[in-house]
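Treating backbone geometry as a discrete language has practical consequences that deserve illustration. The sequence in question and its structure tokens are set out directly beneath this paragraph.
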Amino acid sequence: MNDDPRDTLAGSPMSRLQIFAVAVTIGLNALDGFDVLAISFASPGIAAEWGIDPAALGFVLSMELIGMSVGSVLLGGVADRLGRRGTMLGCLVLMAFGMFMATTTRGIVDLSLWRIVTGLGIGGMLAATAAVAAEFSNRRRRDLCVSLMAIGYPIGAVLGGSIAAQLLAEHGWRSVFYFGAAVTAAFIPIVFFFVPESVHWLARKQPAGAFERINRTLRRMGHAAIRALPEIPADARGRSGSDLFAPALLGTTVIVAAAYFFHIMTFYFVLKWVPKIVADMGFAASSAAGVLVWANVGGAVGGAVLGLLTQRFNVKALTIGAMVLSTVLVTVFGRSPEDLARLSMLCAFAGFFTNGAIVGMYAIFAKAFPTHVRASGTGFSIGVGRGGSVLGPVLAGFLFDGGVGLPTVALVMGLGSLLAAGVLMLLKLEPKSPEAADAEPAPLTRAPASP
């Protein structure tokens, strides 16, 4: 028998249940990718139906991002206090409800309200799934598993975008939200029945019944049961989000949040404005959605490539390189002629590097924050970073409304990734990750009676 279940998971080959749990996080992140982009796919139809100008549309495009910012911070802390599994289930309910209610709206105000509700669920889901992907993987595959989780986002946008293009060609913009609500609801029973609570969280937090729950999950994974819970002082079990601002983690928290903030401005400029930019060039709304699909195809490939490279190269250096190239490609996109094939190609390359850097940031979150603040740290970084996701589309909207041309707007928005690369250069990651240290065997407490 092993003394510490975290050590068992960190040092053993991944079981089918562990692989399935990581696969579910990929699906959940794909769901997030579609939900976030649903408003982008629908934006040309919304603008035409309601007659709103670019500045007002920019605010609508940003509403779920505001919800994501709040949800990441608040619900990320809930995932650390109350558990990963329950948080994911609650977030799925919020997302499904918000997506469905968006179909009932008749104006900007009520649509914005339901996009905020959807964003709350998405924000909490992002923090929880990042923690689950890290904690269900072993030490050797952790960066890869977190990277695979992160590329679910563009995969969802690609698959959802292809479906959205067909829906928009045959039905109104509300059909996109009907589809999103249905798929979101379908994930609720999958998580409920097939994703157990994180063993890392149970071992660190040790709520009532933790010993039995850990051993039950270990048996499902094909691992040996533990004899007793690892000894963790009560005050240590009670610590959570406030440690993000303690001296040991404050610098890390500030740097990763700022880097994410600046890069996400560039990332969401591409995701939120590409359909409207292409539609304004005279192309059909379905064609505009197709260009955004290519951006996400590139994003999925870029994320997968970066994830594989993390097995051999330094994740921080890879992420900085992707950010620099993001600036270059977004600037080039802004100078592209009005040619659908060329626009699609440039968006694919821009997506390759912008999403590659997002994948790198998620891997950095998993390395930078220990178990007891992993969801809180990831949620806080995403939440603060979502300020950039809100600012990016709004700033672009005001620039366009002020008569600034696309080449200049693309250059300004692309500089966000360059700033992020500069900030990230200040980050110092310990050779031994917090998770590896957390997984080391600890003295045992007296074993509770086995059931």
Q: What stands out?
A: Confidence is low (pLDDT under 50) at residues 433-451.
